[in-house]
């Protein structure tokens, strides 16, 4: 409770997306659509993969985990945002703010690590097809999937502790639509310059490291693909990999833009982060799965089954 004595702030006020006064109704409809579409899309992909034994392979196991993250990731900020866009209170409790910051970074980091693991999976499948089942066994998949969450949790705990061990003793208006590190540091009643550097290094290095590993994997993959004799084989391999790369760029570019700016620009940050929070999780099922015959086939079966249930 030492922290409570220092921090007199018991709640924060979320001011919302900068420069959008008067657009609440439009934003509410837009974000509600994005959010529901994301939940539906990812739930359908989960159903399609779980219900088809043909899709019980490492790649789809990781895709399942990505869909789960994509259901929870927008749920960190969207429900609260939709709540106050529809005219309700903009207040969020101290604990609510802590949990928003923690889960945002926990799920964000987990996804970053997951993209890296998925790149490793594709690298093994394309470059070492004969050794693939040994190097990417069920046990390895389970360890890798747990590892992504474990390291995501460590990173998020570190960042959350850094941010909230600061005293918050007066200003409590968060000039944003959820509690994130850059906006919280502005409200602290202490010098935050060292923390900003540590935060930047921590938030910046993780995605950068992942991104470099992913680039390495895909460089090897491209090199391997170019050696495939048949044009059809090349086309199929490129098709899978280009879908993955699109999703990866969509996920990593916003992070680089937001956390590595010398001077933060709230409007640009909000636009980029909304893209990251709402649009990327919505596009992931489309990017990864609708380019894929097996998932399409399984989805069709799921939808027919749901149709039959509704007719009963």
From TrEMBL:
One Pfam family linked to the record: 7tm_4
Keyword Cell membrane: yes
G-protein coupled receptors family 1 profile domain: residues covered: 41-288
Entry's Gene Ontology cellular component terms: plasma membrane
InterPro entries per UniProt: GPCR_Rhodpsn (IPR000276), GPCR_Rhodpsn_7TM (IPR017452), Olfact_rcpt (IPR000725)
GO MF terms, alphabetically ordered: G protein-coupled receptor activity; olfactory receptor activity
Protein name: G-protein coupled receptors family 1 profile domain-containing protein
